Amino acid sequence: MRQNTTKRYSEWHSVKGKKGVFEGWANGPFQDDRSAVWPVGPGLSDRLSGSLSLTILFRLGACNNPRQALNLPFVLRHCWARHFRLYRTAGWAKAHGVPDTRTIEAYAERAEEFAATYNTVRPPFLSRILEVARPGGRLLDIGCGSGRDLAAFAEEGMEVFGLDPVETMREVAGKTYPVLKGRLRAGSLPDDLPEGETYDVVHCAAVLMHLFPEELFNAVFSLRNLLVPEGICHLSFSPDRPGLDDAFRSPEGRLFRPLQREQVVVLLERAGFRILSVETGGDRLGREAIQWVSILARRDEGHGERPLQRIEEIVTRDTKDATYKLALLRSLTELAGQHFHDVRWLDDGRVAVPSARIVDQWIRYYWPLFAVDRFIPQKNGEYPGSGKPISFRQELTRLVSSFSQSGGYLAYREARWMNPSLDRHLRSKIQTAIRTGPVVFTSGQMFQWMGRGADSHLVLPGGFWKELAELGHWIEPAIRLRWAEETRRFSKQQLPVGEVLSLLSTDYEVDRNVALSRHIFAGVPRLRCTWTERTLNRTFDVDHILPYSLWHTNDLWNLVPTDPKVNRQKRDRLVDRAFFLHRRDAVIHAWELQREQAGERFDCELHTLLGRRPDPDNWQHAAFQCLAEAIEATALRRKAERWSA
What we know:
48% of the residues lie in helices and 11% in strands. It is an alpha/beta fold and 645 residues long. Helix 12 (148-155) links the parallel strand 1 (138-142) and strand 2 (159-163). Mean pLDDT is 80; it is low at 1-97.
């Protein structure tokens, strides 16, 4: 540590005589790169008067001891009496979020003038906030200034409170709006905020541009901590201000750091918010050169972490007594990628996933593990004949055994199409395992269970679902590998990871070939290629509309007859959108041929694409629209090459 300190001092000392460095420190941040030569960080001198900045610099230049030179309290003791009335030390000021002094002084000197100007217009964002806020909820206005916004919210029935670091502004606000009496106090971003209090809405208008870049994340994260779960945050700011000096200050000394809307959106998302709306508009005071950005955001359920971080935490760090968490995460990953119409979006932005779909996936995952002769434990301490096996082992083992001689998993699935109550007890056991296992014990309580029985749903954050949908094809292999590693641990290192991984990677769709579709198409006189309208003789191929390499399914809705030459040209590419829309009638014709011969299977498989039972009278339109969506979503997510005949 001492060596690094000396090195930094030497770097500073080697350039201390350069004029640009002194001007940069005295006049404002970002005029020179100072991060390596001043350990307190950029922007400090901009909080202080120019003379104090130069005093500190020259005091450092005269100091022969690197440890003293980089010890800010040591330096400040030499200029305390003359310059340092507002701060104990600059390091203390930075650590405790003391706002910019010159900005506060500017507002204090012209408080009545500023308040009179602001009070001439009504808040433009009032109605938008009230649309999403809880009626009568608690609202905190940080940087409440003239009190205009607070009074307007109070008139709408909100329970309002205001913070502002400028005492004279608070006094003017209290006199102008008696309703605010006893509801205003000192406070500011990023750290001088109420402790132990939460609000339904936090409103922060025209404040962020008064902060330095290094304070922004802490400021926004502090806003999040003031909100109740699902609480609303509103921010407004002007991206650029005309008439500023090189230190981004107005003539009266107020700081206006430049901000961009995308920058603040990313900042909010990183701090654990979900963006509801972003709007840009003109200035209500008639200043033509000034634009305002207004952002509404909701505190997200992801507890400040990005969804991908939560996924990584569940996969790698959550404690696991069984493989349930991994099975649940894997099923959600696959459903988000290929069965996005199965879910229901709730009013609060969360997603409700039918538990029946999750149970389908669990049966498919665990089937190959139970179908082999060797016992494969899926719970810590589980062994043959153990008193505490995973809760559904007996029911699934019995089902696997009953189909072992008649086609295995694929035979079971076809039998269930005809008899949905075939596995009722097994499905009930799996639902209970999910509801009482990963829903309860996954860190952060990010899952909730809604409803009962076959109509129940698993509820999760919308941002989490979005991340699974976009990155699932990368996430799912990692989950499988972790599952195999946990299984090896449960077996006391007896089972090789590779053996378990092979079972978990079982692809039943490979075994379920396209023979049925080929048989149906072979019986059609004057069969035509779906993509070219060429007449097909006895030789034809069955093409996957969604290439099997991108979407592992042999469902009938994904299979069409094609000319072998055309099929070789298409290979693993996705059909071009315009071309696919042009071939709509030919695609639907291939579907109708198959549905006529295998209606029960076709409708069951189409159900997985639509997320609901097909409408007997108009299933074609819905199916085509959903398939077109699946093609484009896959193209965007996988960056797949496109093709047209």
